Amino acid sequence: MPPASLKGLTPRTLRNALAPCSAVVACVIAVACSNIEKADPTVQTKRADPISFEIDADPIMRGTVAAETMVVGYEPAVVRAYGVVVGLKGTGSRIAPNEVRQHMIQDLARRGVGDPTVAEVNFTPESLLDSEDTAIVVIEGVINPGSVKGTKFDLRVYVAPGTATTSLEGGKLWTCDLRPGLLIAGSKQARPMAEGRGPIVINPFADQSGKIVDTVNRMSGRILNGGEVTRDMTVKLRLSTPSHARARLIANAINSYFPREKTQKDDTARGRSSELIDIHIPPSWRDRTDEFIQVLRHTPITTAPIEQLASQVARSVSNNPGAASAASLRWQALGKKSLGAVRPLYTFPEEQPRFAALDAGAKLDDALAVSHLLDLARNGSGRVRVQAVRLLGRMSSNPSVDLGLRSLLEDDDIDVRLTAFEELRDRNDPIVQSQDVSGRFRVDVVPSAKPMIYVSQSGEPRIAIFGTDLEVVRPMTLTAWSGRLMFKGDDGKKSLEVFYRPSEGLPPLTDFVQPKVAEVARFLGHTTTVDRPAPGVGMSYSETIGALHEIWKKGYIKADFKAEQDRILASIVKADEDKPRDARPEYEEEEEAEEAPTAGAVRPTIAADPLKPAAGLDTQAPRRDTVPR
Predict the structure, then answer these.
(1) Is 433 helix (H, G, I), strand (E, B) or coil?
(2) CB atoms within 10 A of CB 319
(3) How far apart are CA 570 and CA 48, in angstroms?
(4) Cα separation, 162 vs 136, whole angstroms
(5) What residues are paired with 433 via a beta bridge?
(6) pTM
(7) How many CB atoms lie within 10 A of CB 229?
């Protein structure tokens, strides 16, 4: 209420009456503002002096990059997302927490679902999520330190809490963004670091409880190589004592040992300030980023002759075998000129210095190390044998290496046998016969007098058959999966009769297949097409190895059955425990407007992501009666 003395005044009269008061108020504000310190645009604010810190370097590390710097941003990144799995057979759910559902509607709309200009998509985000052939899931993965754009990694997928999905069997993950940090639904999220997509593999083996029931967890699965890094993970070196001159010296030393390669856009090391040096992974190291960083840390800064430095390291490790790992990395950083000091240690009496020398010799591709590594692979102790096989596998083309690895396919140690196979496969040795099965997985066959079936659970999905003549025992009759799968083979007959019903309500498939285990594996996964008319029933990777496991479990395959150990969940837990939330710049939150246009609802038939092709397959965990690796 205005004071009584102002009542009855017109607005113009009132403004005139209050003008003096406004002037007084303006004066008061001006005086008050004169007490606030204003920034002088001509004066530059000085940055706080860089903080120095001490590094307690082992004597063998003196004069190296590691003695004066620490690596920043070099830890695994756990990435997560909500996503949509399609292609289920009525086992999905339209029920989901409202916040998560709205988040997925916005995300799907952003990717073009519901957009009338996208010819392949004739349904809306809402109708997609309303289908019981889809499910909202949580995706997790671990990106290795220093990974660059395009790096593939495995994903774990499980049913989102608050939904009613009963199985992810046969599903495929639509493309989704993967972000570091906590799982958040909404607009404020960290920047994406990767994308995830691909078919889900359900663990085809029962849990290790040993119960005589179906204990397969169909609400969780894996996507092998389903994650793909979309931007380089930044790696930097922080100087213990900041100095522009020292930063230039260290960067120059690194660049002299790791010169820019043909397709490399920038120098390997580039000084960013007096305390930071940016590191760019050279293309030749992009599949071995961890090894590259370790070798880089052991790179010398000093200008002493390489032969002299290599001899000093050899003397140090001879006197102190505990420094063997560091010695090997120092020789690797020095390059082939260090081999003169390394070779005398190939026959050193103590195992640690000897293996350090052979490790460096193999990685520097010294042909003189081959015979010594083969001796370790055949006669060494424990894990040294497997490590020796891996070192042999990474050496360049050499008949002695190939023949030596082939002989180990008969070794009594399963780990040695499997590692020899993996190295021969990666070396494209013709002894490994490999065949793609309808883009779902590969079947590898290797000759061996010790028959075995080995299934991968990381990287590319593969079924390896040891023994080119390994066959299903006959006579045999097998019924599995509540009668959906049956095998029948009479003694003396050259084929097996297979009956398979993909799901309830669908017509069964009946056909014949040769009894060789490799042929059975191909038949189970192959989809018959005009271009590839060979018979097959089109099982997924997990269904195929599940069927083979059923045959083996009933005693119709006389061989070992081995599954690679699943390490994804353990990696996620460890990375979460070890890493503080603010350790990486990717945790800075960004605003993302995700308004979603909607249209009339149409219940779709869901088959695959029309926006991007699939990029991988999936994983499982070991069963009680398998031997995990």
Answers:
(1) strand
(2) 10
(3) 41
(4) 10
(5) 445
(6) 0.75
(7) 22
| Contact present, 431 and 447 (Cβ < 8 Å) | yes
Q: Which two tokens stand for residue 540?
A: 């997924």
Q: Give the C-alpha distances (Å, rounded to integers) separating 148 from 104, 170, 457, 606.
A: 28, 31, 23, 33
CB-neighbour burial class of residue 349 (10 A; exposed 0-12, middle 13-18, buried 19+): exposed
Q: Give me the DSSP letters along 61-91.
A: GTTBGGGTEEEES-S-EEEEEEEEEE--SS-
CB 208 within 8 A of CB 624: yes
The type of residue at 350 is: E
Tell me how far apart the alpha carbons of residues 574 and 152 are, in angstroms, rounded to a whole number: 20
Task: Give the Cα separation of 142 and 156 in Å (integer).
Answer: 9
Residue 300 identity? P
Positions of E strands within 342-387: none
The two beta strands, 135-143 and 77-86, are antiparallel
d(C-alpha 409, C-alpha 419), whole Å:
9
Alpha helices (H) in 133-241, listed in sequence order: none
Bridge partners of 488, per DSSP, are 477, 497
- Which amino acid belongs to residue 409? L
- The strand pair at 452-455 and 560-563 is best described as parallel
Cα distance from N-terminal residue to C-terminal residue, the chain = 84
**Helix, coil or strand: residue 542:** helix
Residue 266: both structure tokens together:
């920038």
The residue type of 70 is M
**377-398 per-position pLDDT tens digit:** 999 887 899 999 999 999 998 9
72 touches 557 (CB < 8 A): no
Read off the pLDDT of residues 267-326 as tens digits, 9 standing for 90 and up: 999 999 999 999 999 999 988 888 999 999 999 998 789 999 999 999 999 998 989 999
Q: Quick one: which of 486, 508, 484, 482 has its CA closest to 497?
A: 486
